Amino acid sequence: MQAHRAAILWFDPHADTPVPHYEADGLLVLAPDAQDTQCVVAVGPYRDVAARHPGVPVQHHPDRLIAPGFVDLHIHYPQTDVIGSPAEGLLPWLEHYTFPHEARLADPAYAGAVAEVFLDELQRHGVTTALTFATSHPGSVDALLSRAERRGLRLVAGKVLQDRHSPDGVRDQTEQSLLDTEALIRRWHGRGRLGYAITPRFAPSCSDAQMRGAGELAARHPDVWVQSHVAENLDEVRWVRELYPRARSYLGVYADFGLLRERAVYAHCIHLDDTDRALLRDTGTAAAVSPTSNLFLGSGFFDHASADRAGFRYGLASDVGGGTSFSPFHTMLAAYYVGRAGVTGSGSAKTGLSLAPSHLWWQHTAGAARAMGLGGVVGSLAPGAEADWLLLNPQATPLMARRTGQAQNLEELLFALIVLGDDRAVERVAVAGAVVPPG
Ligand code: GUN
Ligand code: ZN
């Protein structure tokens, strides 16, 4: 057993909306479970929790904030080196930068090198759980998940399915792609902290047969994740309408193939209508909101107010490399900007609840975990949860020290961190999983 004393932020893992808990002088008590994963035994005011756990050695972290590790709901590890590639929009960006780059991951040595950098960046920025795309090459999944396992990280990844409208080097073969997916599910899903996601890239890049196969796999493996993109860009939406003239909507295409369900996470969800939003809610499908990507590629603005009205699950994501940063602080700030733009556009003077700092933080921790079907497992630091935790330094820069020093309450403190914070504020990242030596 071990215990850490500092200011602590944690979340009720089961609430539909954020219930932040904060102790200015708190104690987090941890112990390994049967798999050697560190879990939270107790959290709360130092005095009470210490009295209930006599004899447990306590590390004291004065002037620091303990917070749950961040959860990134949508990211592309092969696009680590694509960040900052400007284009007119999504489709030219895919054609000119992304597909040619992803073709390089056919080489396992290159994929391994990118995976190391990617995992370093996640950890440096305090991201301890991620739902990530690999490339269409099955070896790209092995390259990533074998390394995540050694680090004890909770990672979910999938081989991309794309058997049409894709260039040589990334295009896969329908039948083989489904066999590869099945083999990867068997190899990786549920191994330690790792998981597999069935990953049709997006409707335009998958034939009917590949989509049908993906839907059948999703039905046979209900605890495996599904991840894709939907309604990101208007040219993309028009293209899908041409390809599927009989579908009710772009999201409806995925519904028709049985790809909307719990543990299905769709990036972007910008150009939806209220029927789509109700479909997300009713199927338990989640949206991965990716504001830095949407701003960088000029895709549009996620509608927080309509999402809250409809009541479907969503959480925050970097979408690197359309997204511009691994930093959850940058993503939370971009979500705030986007939400503000929406509020001003609708003529209301009030920002919605989902733009409160503790809500933005929840969307990148416990809320994102809940959207992934991992509520209570990660992102909360509540008793029983896996103990991926961060030691944040609110004094990491002179300006942060000045500003956070004047915060009068939790919301002000979190807002100052969201606006001024980055990896300099992440002093230590504790990963709950046992570290597996290479072998
Ligand atoms: N749609 C299909 N593929 C991609 C991708 O790699 N990134 C983004 N942002 N959208 C996509
Ligand atoms: Zn994406």
Structure overview:
The chain has 439 residues and is of the alpha/beta class. It folds into 2 domains: 2-68 and 380-436, Urease, subunit C, domain 1; 70-371, Metal-dependent hydrolases (TIM Barrel, Alpha-Beta Barrel). The chain is built from 16 helices and 15 strands. It has helices at residues 46-52, 90-103, 108-124, 138-151, 174-188, 208-220, 234-243, 250-256, 274-283, 291-296, 304-310, 328-345, 357-363, 366-371, 398-405, 410-420; strands at 2-11, 20-32, 38-45, 58-68, 70-76, 127-133, 154-158, 160-161, 195-200, 225-230, 264-268, 286-289, 313-316, 389-392, 426-430. The strands form 2 sheets. Strands 5, 6, 7, 8, 9, 10, 11, 12 and 13 form a 9-stranded parallel sheet that branches. Strands 3-2-1-4-14-15 form a 6-stranded mixed sheet. A hairpin with an 8-residue loop joins strand 1 and strand 2 (20-32). The chain is globular and about 65 Å long. The model is unreliable at 345-349 (pLDDT under 50). The structure holds guanine (GUN) and zinc ion (ZN). Zinc ion is lined by residues 74, 76, 229, 267, 319, 322. Zinc ion binds next to strand 5.
Q: What number is the mean pLDDT?
A: 96
Structural class: alpha/beta
- Helicity level: 25-40%
Query: Main sheet?
Result: 9 strands, parallel
Treating each run of at least 4 consecutive H or I residues as one helix, how many helices? Answer: 16
User: How many domains, as an integer?
Assistant: 2
Q: Looking at CATH, which topology of the largest domain would you report? A: TIM Barrel
Strand content: 15-25%
